[in-house]
Design a protein that fits this description.
Length: 647
């Protein structure tokens, strides 16, 4: 932007004030110099000049901001100053309007070569170049002064308003700050109150929940005590009911035993009568008696002669006492077929079992302890018996530990062991040989448990004695009574089928056969092969050939035949010959279709000489194999033999 240069023709000094011909002043410096000049003029003149100012001039922009300008040069001649002073005096004297003359003979404007940038400024101030008269100049000056005063007043008011506005803004900001602080303080107080209120609510809720929980606990305790009381009452009722049932069972067993004794007594009386009748009719029955004696002699020779020993009992003693006492006639009313020695042993074992039951009942009634958990533990251990050495050893050790537990009477644990073993043999997953090993390991430490277990087995299956009860209308009121006498079960007043009974009979005899042949190193089997040999001799001497005895004999041979042959060799083969010639012939002579399957199976056992082969499962496995846990079809068929004699 170009520079505006003003040149005023005036003397170099005015009233002793020298002016530089070409000063380089700023606009503020010029204003201050003009103020100084006016003060000097006012002091030197007796009449104040119309241009006199009591306040320094200040130029503001459109927005109240002081303006600044480039420096310019002003020259004033002495003649003009004097003429102006004289005219001012005249005007003052004549009452004329105060006029101030400002004359510029020449206005020199200089600009840079770039005129296009300065043209707007020159156009705005072109009036400075016009020459006007004194009046117009004074009027213009007054108008300009008035405008400046008005503008200055407006600026002052605007400035005051701006100041007031700023003050008000500051006050408003301060008030707003105070309000914010007050609001923040109120919020803080409110937050504290909320925290305290929430804390009180939480404490109240916690106290309420604690009280509710306490009430629930109290109610649950009351309910638990009530349940315990009801359970104890129910347990007492159950025990009382069990005691009553046991008493009824014992009475029933006693009545049955008395009935059996009466039947035996009747048999004895009938036998004596038969013997007397036989002596009187000796001549008539000579041929028949001779034939019978010949058959008996042949059996005695097959068993090894008159001096052969069977489990400590001489065969000639069996011939002279047991065979004569068991070979009875149905026409004389005889129903029980068994060796006298076997019946005596059965009575002794059953008596021990009865005494043990009475002791246990008195212990249960006098003690408040519940032994059901121990009995369930024993049952669980027996169900978990498998055909491995580790399993058998572990279960036997656990059972021996239970027997030695001082918290449970030994009579209760032994009785429970005997019952659970006998009942478990009915299960289809029963491992008879493994159970036999566990029984031998346990009874080697507690020998009294063997007689009790055999007693339980003989009470469940009469053919483990062995003995047989023949049907007679004079001895039994009905067929159902006879079936109950030989071991059929009754469920809800209905007798079980012969199929189920024979299946259980086979399971019992398999367990008995596995037990007598079990041999464990370092342990004594108190009911070993001698008892098995005696059972076989008593069975062949006393029991008739029918479907029940056939199933019992086949199951026993399947399990114990291999061990009996290893010990008795040729004597066992002679017994097998008697079975083949007498027992099987007696079965075939009945011509009963139901007997054909079991007859064929016994005949296959004899002809194929299966007694030379060790039964599968007899030797315990060293580890748990899948073939042991899940037998294949052939093993399952040969081991369980399901329904092979039912058609």
């Amino acid at each position: 932007m170009g520079v505006v240069k003003l040149e005023i023709q005036c003397p170099e000094t005015v009233n002793g004030i020298g002016l530089e011909p070409d000063p380089d002043w700023s606009f503020d410096t010029l204003l201050s110099e003009l103020d100084s000049l006016e003060k000097t003029l006012n002091v030197s003149s007796s009449v104040p000049l119309p241009l006199a100012k009591t306040k320094s001039r200040e130029f503001y922009g459109e927005k109240g901001i002081k303006r600044s300008s480039n420096a310019f040069v002003m020259r004033i001649s002495d003649e003009e100053f004097e003429d102006n002073e004289g005219e001012n005096e005249e005007a003052h004297d004549g009452g004329l309007v105060k006029v101030a003359q400002f004359n510029c003979d020449e206005l020199y404007l200089s600009s840079s070569d770039d005129d296009s940038d300065d043209e707007p400024c020159l156009e705005v101030q072109t009036y400075l170049m016009n020459e006007v008269g004194l009046v117009e100049s004074a009027l213009f000056e007054l108008t300009h002064e008035h405008q400046l005063g008005v503008k200055e007043e407006i600026r002052n008011r605007i400035s005051a308003l701006e100041t007031d506005l700023m003050n008000e803004s500051e006050k408003s900001f301060s008030a707003h700050t105070k309000v914010e602080k007050y609001s923040e303080a109120r919020r803080e107080v409110q937050r504290k109150f909320d925290v305290q209120y929430q804390r009180r609510i939480a404490e109240g809720l916690d106290n309420h929940l604690t009280a509710v929980q306490r009430d629930h606990e109290l109610k649950s305790q009351i309910e638990e005590r009530r349940i315990r009381s009801d359970a104890a009452h129910e347990e007492a009722k159950r025990r009382e009911k069990a005691i009553q049932e046991e008493r009824l069972r014992q009475e029933k067993a006693k009545a049955e035993a008395e009935a059996k004794l009466k039947a035996e007594e009747a048999n004895r009386v009938a036998l004596e009568a038969e013997r007397r009748a036989a002596k009187e009719a000796a001549e008539k029955e000579a041929a028949k008696a001779q034939k019978s004696n010949t058959s008996k002699v042949s059996q005695t020779e097959a068993l090894g002669g008159p001096n052969a020993t069977v489990s400590g009992v001489l065969i000639d003693q069996l011939k002279g006492s047991e065979i004569d006492k068991t070979n009875k006639s149905h026409s004389a009313g005889n129903t029980l077929r068994a060796a006298e020695s076997a019946l005596n042993l059965e009575r002794e074992r059953l008596q021990k079992l009865k005494e043990l039951d009475e002791i246990n009942q008195s212990l249960r009634s006098s003690s408040n302890e519940d032994f059901g958990s121990i009995e369930r533990h024993i049952a669980r251990l027996i169900r978990q018996i498998r055909g491995t050495k580790d399993n058998v050893s572990t279960k036997a050790s656990a059972l021996i530990k239970i027997f030695n537990n001082p918290g449970c009477p030994q009579t209760i644990s032994i009785a429970s062991f005997a019952k659970k073993v006998v009942s478990h043999c009915e299960s289809p997953d029963n491992a008879a040989f493994a159970c036999g090993h566990v029984i031998v390991l346990v009874t080697s430490q507690f020998p009294q448990a063997m007689d009790l277990l055999v007693a339980e087995l003989q009470r469940a299956c009469i053919y483990s004695v062995p003995k047989h009860i023949s049907y007679s209308k004079s001895a039994f009121e009905s067929k159902e009574a006879y079936w109950k006498a030989i071991g059929y079960r009754e469920d809800h007043g209905k007798i079980e089928s012969s199929k189920d009974y024979l299946k259980r009979l086979e399971s019992y005899m398999k367990l008995y056969g596995a037990l007598v042949q079990t041999e464990v190193a370092g342990c004594q089997n108190v009911h070993g092969l001698n008892e098995g040999w005696a059972w076989l001799a008593r069975f062949l001497n006393a029991l008739p050939a029918n479907i029940y005895t056939a199933v019992a004999l086949n199951a026993f041979l399947q399990m114990a035949g291999f061990a009996l042959f290893r010990k008795y060799k040729s004597q066992f083969k002679k017994v097998l010959n008697i079975i083949s010639e007498n027992f099987l012939n007696a079965l075939r002579a009945q011509e009963d279709p139901e007997l054909r399957p079991i007859t064929a199976e016994i005949q296959s056992y004899l002809e194929d000489k299966k007694f030379l082969q060790e039964p599968e499962g007899r030797a315990l496995q060293s580890s748990l194999l899948s073939s042991v846990m899940v037998p294949d079809s052939d093993y399952r068929d040969s081991y369980h033999q399901p329904n092979r004699f039912f058609y």
